[in-house]
């Protein structure tokens, strides 16, 4: 029987389907495998369903057994997989697009509003019994209605965020490798350079994949180009942001605040960022709803099913 390794605990419904259809190898300890454990766990399986936390770099891919046919990621992001190495090795790689766009856009909205309206600061004040004063000038934040929402990466999640921004009366601007068709643009203003987008973004929300080319794209020069008092939202990947430059921009007041669901170091985050008041922080939970995690698991399994039925998987990325 086909053996499928599931590297992390998924939803009960997804586990039930893997166990029904395959000989399932489950990591019920739900701890990130070390590199050696990941290689060892892959030796006796035909397919693996990993999360973004399992790094399949060229060395790990070289150590995979010949029987392993597919890395069916339980994620839309595939920056943790060396796609060229997988392709060269003949290992199929798939992801789970579409099904997490709404959940991730919801978290981006939460990050935007939490940052703009000082959500963490206020929450801490009430919880810790430090709310001993009120005045009209107290805890004043930024209104997002009527502001310009810049979106870097107008893919599925970026467009879902744009729709939500429109619902909040925001003017949508974006930068993307390619300009969208007018029907998909829905009146959003296209900027053919990142610099152009930065200059008009009262709120900038990142929705592009992390690649070697855009690592640290949000650096000191990028923050300097943004309007004074702008807000950064990141629900994509921590690698997009130079975190030292972000801390400096938040300390100086160049940025009013940041709302972050992702960090360079995960799990854990960045203690310098966490020490700031003007941040709203979450532990990488963009797709963490039962509905979405069920859908992601089923989508990953659809891809595994296709490979072993001799069909082209719907979400092949390598
Ligand atoms: C996941 C993600 O949290 O899809 C992605 O790229 O980062 C997240 O949705 C994760 O990989 C869940 O398995």
TrEMBL record:
InterPro entries linked to this entry: D-isomer_2-hydroxyacid_DH (IPR050223), D-isomer_2_OHA_DH_cat_dom (IPR006139), D-isomer_DH_CS (IPR029753), D-isomer_DH_CS1 (IPR029752), D-isomer_DH_NAD-bd (IPR006140), NAD(P)-bd_dom_sf (IPR036291)
Sorted UniProt keywords: Oxidoreductase
Superkingdom classification of source: Bacteria
Domain D-isomer specific 2-hydroxyacid dehydrogenase NAD-binding: 111-286
Any Pfam family: 2-Hacid_dh_C
Domain D-isomer specific 2-hydroxyacid dehydrogenase catalytic stretches: 5-317
PANTHER family from the UniProt entry: 2-HYDROXYACID DEHYDROGENASE-RELATED (PTHR10996), GLYOXYLATE_HYDROXYPYRUVATE REDUCTASE B (PTHR10996:SF283)
Family: Belongs to the D-isomer specific 2-hydroxyacid dehydrogenase family.
Protein name: D-glycerate dehydrogenase
Source species of the chain: Paralimibaculum aggregatum
Lineage per the UniProt record: Bacteria, Pseudomonadati, Pseudomonadota, Alphaproteobacteria, Rhodobacterales
